[in-house]
Structures are given as structure tokens and as C-alpha cells.
Amino acid sequence: MNGIIAAVAVVGGVGLLFGILLAVASFVFEVKKDERAEKILEVLPGANCGACGFAGCGAYADAIVNDGAKINCCSVGKAPVAEKISEIMGVEAMDVVEVVARVSCGGNCSSAAKKYEYEGVPDCVAASKLGGGSKACPSGCLGLGSCVKVCQFGAISVVDGVAVVDENKCTACGQCLKRCPKNIIHFVPKHLKQWVVCQNPETGRYVNQYCSAGCIGCKICEKNCPFDAIHVENNFATIDYDKCKNCGICAKKCPRHAIHGRDDG
Known about the structure:
Blueprint lengths: L1 H27 L6 H9 L13 H11 L10 H12 L9 E5 L20 H5 L17 H5 L5 E4 L2 E4 L9 H5 L5 E5 L4 E3 L7 H7 L9 H5 L5 E4 L2 E4 L9 H5 L5 E3 L4
Antiparallel strand pairs: 1-4, 2-3, 5-8, 6-7
Helix pairs in contact: 2-3, 2-4
């Protein structure tokens, strides 16, 4: 009996000793969390979309406090959130250049030819595995809504076979860009109205065969731009948004209507 009591006492004593050691270790090696990170996390929108370049809102908050990350990277919260973060960090507020996602494809059901009728899973990624998808254009939007499914803000829909972004709802979270298997959704500064709705790298001869809305690389836009802001590269027009002045001449001159211009009224 005495042996059992002694064994229990020894085990209890060892357990008590380890408990004390763990308590001391947790105190000595405690990593104190900067309360500023918690405050920043509170003002962030909580979308955890990763558009800031970090794994989520928590990781972004920690990066601002501990690694000096820029305070204007939250495309969902935009300027109001950046201003609140600047107050928490005690630094000068930074400008936030708002961007939106835009789709570089104008090949809708009436203008784009098809190679075959797709009857599989309604998903662009799945369809792209079958010869690049049903559209004859190698860069054409497949219109099956993979981008729609990943947008948590309801900012993108498929209209007449082509994805269309509602710029009033778009937060530039970047999920649609990541999901599109054709890589035809891009960020564009929101205040700039023009964008090219084609990025087919083939020559005009081949574009004419399967899309009446595709860029044929004629360079009319390039020759008429007074700011040298648009050039034909890889057989399709590309706008340099650092030079673009929103004049809209390129969109008006394009004979294929492959440059769209947003009308703000």
C-alpha cells in the first residue's frame, strides 16, 4: 500500500514539476502580439480574397505591422480602409488607385464561330481541356461561368456567351483572374474608360475566319492615338494605361469595334 502511495506521489510530483516548467517557459518565450495588428484586422473587410498579395486579412495585418507592407493594398476596402490603417499605424495616408476587372473578349454568340457543341460539365476549366474549348478562337471566352462562381461579390455574369463585369460591384479581389483558363480577364485602372476586347495572337487573316469582333492588327488605333498610348503587339492592340488620356479616339476609329469604351454619361 505504501508503495502505491509513493508511486502516486512521485507521478504527481513529476506532473507538477512539468506543469511549473511549462508555465515558466510560456511566460519566458511568450510572443507578444502587437495590438495594432488586431486593430487593423478589425477595419479590414474580412473578404480574405488574397488580392493584397497575402494569404488573408490576418496575414496582411501582420505584414503591415511586422514587415512594413504598404497600407493601400486592400482593393476591397479601398481608400476608406487605407485611411483607417494609416491612423492606426501613425503614418501618412496613401492614395489607392482603384482597379476593376475587365474581360478581353468581344466574341459573343453572334460574332464568334464554334468548333463543336460542348455538352459536358458547365465549367470553363473543364471545357478548356477539350481542344481549348468549343470556340474557334483560341483566346475566346468560353462563357460557362467559372469566373461567376468564384466571385463572392456578384460582380460578374455571362451575357450572350461572354463574361461581363459590373464595375460598380467589382472589388478587384482577383478571383476571376485566377480562375479564367484563357487568362483574358485583367485589372484596369477604373478611371480609364477604354479597353481592348480581344487578345488573339493570330494574324487578321485567321481572326476573320472565326470572329467578326476580333482585333485584326490593322494599327488604325495606333496611328490615330495622339498620346502614343496604344500599339499593336502580338497581332492585337494593347493600351498603355500610363499614357492613356481617355480621349476615346481609338474606340471610335476601330473598324472592328474591338475597343470598348465605358460611357459614364
